[in-house]
């Protein structure tokens, strides 16, 4: 009986969380974006304020979900994340980017072009000046260099979309190209969620049997210098191969520890 | 005319081997760049730069917007060199 009640509670808490995210996603930018434009300051300051605001909003949202009992989490290497340049993470769930932005005040994410048409997301994307990937990775490359020049931290999911659970990680070359051509080191992040939920296949209302537990771990930096021996085209391929093996190995280790 | 096309094709195959380390046996006129040869949009930009060097003509990235297969590149290069 008690188990049923806690399950029902968690279902409603999950529904409530999504409701808050959805309403917040629509209402908050309507208020915040005009304020960002009214406040004096340069375009760069506006962007920085927008990023800081989304950071605080997402951090609050994560804490709300924990307070409601929807999830628990542990963070490793929070300081390393704040000092990162290019953050590359695996992408098991819908909440990965929410966690990463909640941990990084000056995050600039590379987001799928389709998200700019998502009414719950586009306000946040506009306010924070995130980098939009409309399909031409070469355009993202040019923008990435500007992002680093501005001192912002770029978050990329090199797989381009959420991983199908149990399948191996297939990385696109965009992330490696950013690291190689902008000459920035990589801070790899391994994200796990047990029991796994909110994947590409899951519907939000099919909640897991127990609260999700997230582990967000920043691992030691991968030096881009080690991959700059040849020309950019070959280096990007070498680094992509390396990262593909790296993420597959690290996620496999995490899976075996948690099982 | 056919010979010219064949020449250009061979040049493109050689370029693919040099740039992307693609086995020439894999490169067919109707190979799809993205699906068959794993050439992404960043590679495509690099490719245009190299083609510019190879042909000595000014190629605009827009000229290559509609390119999907190896043969599309060959045709586009031949068209631009004929102009």
TrEMBL record, chain A:
Pathway(s) the chain acts in: Lipid metabolism
Database matches in SMART domains: PlsC
Parts of the chain that traverse the membrane: 12-41, 53-73
SUPFAM superfamilies: Glycerol-3-phosphate (1)-acyltransferase
Phosphoprotein as UniProt keyword: no
Pfam family, one: Acyltransferase
Keyword check for Acyltransferase: yes
CDD domains: LPLAT_AGPAT-like
GO molecular function, one term: 1-acylglycerol-3-phosphate O-acyltransferase activity
Alphabetic keyword roster: Acyltransferase, Membrane, Transferase, Transmembrane, Transmembrane helix
Domain Phospholipid/glycerol acyltransferase stretches: 85-194
A GO BP annotation: phosphatidic acid biosynthetic process
InterPro entries tied to this protein: Plipid/glycerol_acylTrfase (IPR002123)
Name listed for the protein in its UniProt record: Acyltransferase family protein
Organism: Aliiglaciecola lipolytica E3
UniProtKB/TrEMBL annotation, chain B:
Residues found modified as O-(pantetheine 4'-phosphoryl)serine: 41
GO cellular component, one term: membrane
Pfam family of the protein (one): PP-binding
GO biological process terms held by the UniProt record: lipid A biosynthetic process
Pathway listed: Lipid metabolism; fatty acid biosynthesis
GO-annotated molecular function: acyl binding; acyl carrier activity
Subcellular location, record wording: Cytoplasm
InterPro entries linked to this entry: ACP, ACP-like_sf, PP-bd_ACP
Classification via Gene3D superfamilies: ACP-like
Keywords, comma-separated and alphabetical: Cytoplasm, Fatty acid biosynthesis, Fatty acid metabolism, Lipid biosynthesis, Lipid metabolism, Phosphopantetheine, Phosphoprotein
Ranges of residues in domain Carrier: 3-81
Post-translational modification: 4'-phosphopantetheine is transferred from CoA to a specific serine of apo-ACP by AcpS. This modification is essential for activity because fatty acids are bound in thioester linkage to the sulfhydryl of the prosthetic group.
Family designation: Belongs to the acyl carrier protein (ACP) family.
Function statement: Carrier of the growing fatty acid chain in fatty acid biosynthesis.
Family annotation (NCBIfam families): PRK05350.1 (NF003757)
The protein, known as: Acyl carrier protein
Gene source species: Aliiglaciecola lipolytica E3
Species lineage: Bacteria, Pseudomonadati, Pseudomonadota, Gammaproteobacteria, Alteromonadales
């Amino acid at each position: 009986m008690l188990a049923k009640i806690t399950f029902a509670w968690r279902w409603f808490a999950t529904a409530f969380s999504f409701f808050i995210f959805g309403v917040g996603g629509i209402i908050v930018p309507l208020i915040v974006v005009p304020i960002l434009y009214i406040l004096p300051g340069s375009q760069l300051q506006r962007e920085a304020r927008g990023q800081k605001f989304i950071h605080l909003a997402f951090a609050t949202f994560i804490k709300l979900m924990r307070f409601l009992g929807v999830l628990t989490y542990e963070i490793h290497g929070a300081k390393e994340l704040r000092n990162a340049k290019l953050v590359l993470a695996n992408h098991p769930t819908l909440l990965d980017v929410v966690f990463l932005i909640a941990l990084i005040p000056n995050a600039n994410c590379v987001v799928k072009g389709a998200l700019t048409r998502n009414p719950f997301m586009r306000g946040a994307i506009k306010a924070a000046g995130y980098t939009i990937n409309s399909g031409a990775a070469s355009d993202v490359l040019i923008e990435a260099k500007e992002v680093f020049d501005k001192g912002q931290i770029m978050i990329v999911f090199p797989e381009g979309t959420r991983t199908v659970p149990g399948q191996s990680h297939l990385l696109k070359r965009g992330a490696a190209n950013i690291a190689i051509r902008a000459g920035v080191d990589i801070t790899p992040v391994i994200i796990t969620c047990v029991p796994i939920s909110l994947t590409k296949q899951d519907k939000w209302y099919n909640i897991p049997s127990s609260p999700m537990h997230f582990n967000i771990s920043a691992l030691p930096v991968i030096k881009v210098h080690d991959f700059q021996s040849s020309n950019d085209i070959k280096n990007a391929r070498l680094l992509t191969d390396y990262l593909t093996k790296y993420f597959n190995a690290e996620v496999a280790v995490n899976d075996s520890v948690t099982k | 005319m056919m010979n010219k096309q064949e020449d250009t094709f061979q040049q493109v195959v050689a370029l693919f081997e040099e740039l992307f380390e693609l086995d020439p046996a894999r490169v067919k006129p109707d190979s799809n760049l993205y699906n068959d040869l794993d050439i992404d949009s960043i590679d495509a930009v690099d490719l245009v730069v190299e083609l510019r060097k190879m042909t000595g003509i000014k190629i605009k990235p827009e000229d290559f917007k509609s390119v999907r297969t190896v043969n599309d590149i060959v045709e586009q290069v031949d068209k631009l060199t004929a102009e």
